[in-house]
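DUF3307 domain-containing protein, pasting as requested.
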Amino acid sequence: MILFTKLLLAHLIGDFLLQPNRWVLHKEVHKATSKYLYFHVALHFVVALVLLWDLRYWKVVAVIAVSHYLIDLAKLYATPYFRLKSIPFFIDQFLHVLVLYACAYYGNLWEHTAQIIENLNWGLITAIVFVSFPSAIIMGKLLEAMSDKIELDHKSLPNAGKYIGIIERLFVLMFIIMGRWEAIGLLIGAKSVFRFNDLKESNNRKLTEYILIGTLLSFGLAILTGIVYVAY
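Structure tokens follow.
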């Protein structure tokens, strides 16, 4: 575990702390001919060796460095084909972490992976999944008749309400599992403060009632899920 942790820390330092934005821009323009691509890979190699502080792992670090180069190079050429740059970014990070995991547990990779899967808390995973998009869809169906009577605010970000609801339900679930019910009250209070100005300026009673019902329903689903999980 400590080997993977150190390799992950080296990756975070090399990819985020020690990579200036001008390096990123230069790589995006020049791709394989960018000198900063090779500086970046060399930096990863050095940082990983320093954190491990054991030359016996130099082959492992070399494999990581080479894979990092190939993954980054593939991302540079694939990014223009994506409308959202966040997609290749997250794919890139996932592949990097996957390589780190494989290198850290190369001696018993399959056994370790099988053990992790066996020890997963499936009840918690189910609860987390439920309070995300399934709950958002359920709420949309329950509030469908009301939403037709609300004038849409075109200044709002697309799907912002849905993602705010998902995040708040995840927080509520986490607080219930931790046994910190008072934190839920603080979360409701914080949301009320942020919503107050919008509702005050709109002076729309229907919108106020709609948001209130949606908020209570969202928190209710998360609280119910948390209670069921804790009891389970």
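Note for the archive: The chain has two domains: 2-118, 122-231.
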